[in-house]
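Question thread 4412

I'm putting together a teaching handout and wanted feedback from people who do this every day. The idea is simple: show students a protein as raw sequence, then show them the structure tokens that encode its fold, then repeat with a second protein so they can compare. Below is the first pair exactly as I plan to print it.
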Amino acid sequence: MGISPVHDGVDTRTQPRLKTEWAMPGEHVVSNTQCRCNLKPHYSHPLPRQPPSPEEPPPLEMMRQPETRPISQDQLVAEVKGIYAGLVMVETKCIEVDNAQSSNPDANKLNNEQWQALIALHRTLLHEHHDFFLASQHPSASLPLRRLAAKYSMPARMWRHGIHSFLELLRHRLPASLEHMLTFLYLAYSMMALLYETVPAFEETWIECLGDLGRYRMAIEDDDIKDREVWTGVSRHWYSKASDKSPDTGRLYHHLAILAWPNALQQLYYYAKSLCVPIPFLSTRESVMTLFDPIFESDPRHLSKIDTYFIRVHGILFSGKGDDNMLAVAMKEFLVRLDGTIAGSTKKWLEAGYFMGIATACSLLGYGMESNVLMRAMAQRSDETDVAIDGSSILQTPPSKSFTQALDFAAKTYDIVLRRWGDTNTLPFIHTILVFILKMTQYPTGISYLEKSFPWKLTMAMLNYHLDSCDFKPSMDNFPSPEKGERPRPLPEDYAMRGLTYAADYHPKDWFGEIDEDEKYFELASMTDQRKERILYLGYKIASQGKWLTFDADSMKFGIMPAYDVKIDGAADPSLESTLDLIKSEEDSGSGEKGC
């Protein structure tokens, strides 16, 4: 047949490759050594030929490539049928054994030989699956034969009956089963890694399974912190790779949220994102409480005060726990610290900024709740601007109390950040918020809930400041792209926004190419100009609608519609003009950050 099973526990990816010369049958094999010997020497006097030593072994003859025979479709079909019949028998046995052990209260009393027998049984099932995939996905296989694996849900069955059920059995028998669980984890990981390389048709499934196995391995490591960190990184790598291939799948962001501990701000971002993508992961609504509950009860030591209050606000808005006073205190404590934190964090607030910006936008979407007024507006058909999918008028639907509170918090947060428009570390936050606002302007019913609270005048001043400080002509008519021939270089927040419902049409096609995970979130000096150009592009797109902001092409200035030309409150900003002049003078004297 030419289809060989995997040897027990061997990951062929890690085996050394022999350096051999290959030739077709009947061809003469010329090695590198022979080639070098045929070169003419650079010296004029030949060296005397040495007689062969009697102790030297005779030269080895190189073996020719083994002859391979083609396989017919009938042979492949027969092979697949035979493999599947054996696979079903082993699968049935695994299901019976796992169910029996799960319901057996004396399962803890299994001895080593019994555990090894169970491992051998599940290993056999994994090998049967491997043989099935190799045969059904053979290069000579017909299309109907290739479709069999998907038709019979073979990848899912392999994970469920060959790996997951047994892992759960082992997990519930910890710590007595620890050694056996480690053995099986390495076995399963090796098999998945092999399938990832040899069966690309189900690459996305193998990638997520590798992430799951890495998370299992991380979770049971209590003794060695370094090992735990290594496996956390391994699992994160596979989940990130999976999310790149399926950015609309919320389940992957939920798993990344778990791995983000102890970075609570990043956890909040991932949890919120898992609910605000086209395929939300609804189980997040339960698991996210493991982040919120401890913050309701006390102030965790590993969190800064400002992160604690920010997450507490979102926890109250999300769960409804706590009273209005608790929410008001948390909001106030966050807002009074925000300006000073941005100033003190400097470059560190680049990442924190887009985490907070995305979480803030998700809070306005009710964390993906279908009853949220903005979610309903986005779900309506384009030809029904005022009527929801259930026939009710969205404009007549009053927003919920939690939406009103979330909007108040978002507007005040954005207001404080905008007043630091000369601080380039605020650009990622502003970028993510404007992407959200631009999307909402496409839905009249959606923007109607936001437009009266959004600080349009401060936004206008910020846009004019960045426009005046640029020493190049920004691209505002079209999405700013690299020069012709250059590869796109997405911003870190581009990856963070990828997949979100409100960012679906923002990036051009093929904007996200293949890039190493470590490079995705690496900050480059040139990204400051890219962010400014992107923000100006978003401002121009909003202004081109002529409803909130305006743009004068002759003077190259942003303006504002009279309805939103309000007086700016706050002693820190007596007038926009004087503040703008102050920032410009500071830059001219070298005390401020240079613009574009």
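The second pair follows. I'd like the answer to focus on this one:
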Amino acid sequence: MVSQSQLPRSAPVANRIVMILQNVAQPEMGILEDKDRARLFYKYLSTVYDRVNPFFWTEEMRTDALDLLDVDETDRVLDVGCGTGFGTTGLLERTETVHGLDQSVHQMEKAWEKFGKHDPVRFYRGDAENLPFADGAFDHVWSSGSIEYWPHPEQALAELKRVTKPGGRVLVVGPNYPKNSLKARVADAIMLFYGEDEADRMFADAGFAEWDHHIMGPPRNTDVAITTIARVPADSDLTATASQRIAETD
């Protein structure tokens, strides 16, 4: 490992940081992809989350994502990683029934203060990788700003698919992988950042067959987020696929 004292003092600060990071053993996961660390992180972030969030995840971005999910007012929607309820707020503008799930007690306390006394919203403390709901319990599933903390994102995506009705949609918003090499190294050390190729792999491994990616961001940083809208096959699609396979074997 190279110490800071061994680096040339004339080197630009950014170059010095890169040289240090190059000599630090990189963990298999970012430090916040550990559930206990993530809970501790949000214990403190929850106090300022609603003030910080608009710098990365704006109401305009939320509206664009909601348009992709295309929710009807009678649909039951699950908000996975609901946090303090930013996504929940938008969902309630489109549908009458929203269920929110998060692993952080402190985040959910903030959400409860906003929505807990209203019948259309029900909150659960739970794990995205082991959802406490029956198969096909929801018409659609929404998750924004949560996948980056999942230790096993493919497992969680498979759970989102499992609890969505056939023909329903799953929308996931996560942090887009930085193009800048220094930002990329920092991102890898903190939590999951991913691009379209990695998203393709994760959604395929989770059992999805049809999805689209949309790059989003606020005006000053238009590619900060990657939004994926995936469709759960309808029963008719599964029947047609099975019939096609039988025909191909005849």
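Top answer:
Good format. For the second protein you could add a caption like this: Strands lie at 76-80, 97-102, 121-125, 138-144, 164-175, 211-216, 225-231. Confidence is low (pLDDT under 50) at residues 1-27, 42-46, 239-247.
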